[in-house]
Amino acid sequence: MNRITALFDIKYPLIQAGMVWNSGWKLASAVSNAGGLGLLGAGSMYPEVLREHIQKCKKTTDKPFGVNVPLLYPDIDKLMQIIIDECVQIVFTSAGNPKTWTSYLKDHGVKVVHVVSSVKFALKAQEAGVDAVVAEGFEAGGHNGREETTTFTLIPMVKEKLDIPLIAAGGIATGKGMLAAMILGADGVQIGSRFVATPEASSHVAYKNLVVEAEEGATELTLKELAPVRLLKNKFYEEVKALYQTTPSKEELVNLLGRGRAKKGMFEGDTEEGELEIGQIAGIIKEIKPAADIVEEIITEYKNSVLPKF
């Protein structure tokens, strides 16, 4: 038992990221049942939808699971009340100041983890009283830090400064990737993109198929003036790229982005006009398979990996 398995009472130190439009109750419960920690992605759920997913998760797994809450969510007080009402024991927070809600959650017996992209923010999270930190390199999909620090660079730097458990994220999809992160100092890993390509992910199959088809260089981090996000290159991405050629104002970028782009792409399957968030690691994902099989593959490869001799 290591610090992450002890903290969450799980079999493997492997967390499924709470990704918007992907991480519903089917995926979270499947990963938890397989020995990892499944997370519900509350960022794309109305409060009552989150309640429904929590209740369904409870019915489909007797193992621990958690909720990922972006702190910039507009009705966050309603989300937090539902989390307390439904007795959720684990919350991962992201995209905001951890001081805002950490004490409230911990006062209600919730274990709190915060996602960061730098040593500076890792230390701020520790000072805020979180139980663990996810340090995410800019290889990751979705919204990222502005520092563009890679996972292999970030993990040892954070490990050197941090006292609480450290979870590595960004560019990890295999057992060997997990082993590399652990050797660099992580106590566990958080994996997102690999779990997009599963039957259990709540996203549209057209989006999942594009993830499987992705090759090296298929994604790019963009829209840094708004909130840096790693996207698959599609028609919408090309429109963003073309707009950048005109040195656009922030308002022009906001107008192009509009509302509901991520839902349109990942959930509704509009692969041309939608925002398709995925990590660089998509280049090695070659098939859609059940979440439990992915967990088993990762853990088996991790355990069977032998360090090269020289």
UniProtKB/TrEMBL annotation:
CDD domains linked to this entry: NPD_like
Residues forming coiled coils: none
Top-rank taxon, per record: Bacteria
UniProt keywords, alphabetically: Flavoprotein, FMN, Oxidoreductase
InterPro entries: Aldolase_TIM, NMO
GO molecular function, one term: nitronate monooxygenase activity
Pfam families listed in its UniProt record: NMO
Entry protein name: Enoyl-[acyl-carrier protein] reductase II
Provenance organism: Leeuwenhoekiella marinoflava
Lineage: Bacteria, Pseudomonadati, Bacteroidota, Flavobacteriia, Flavobacteriales
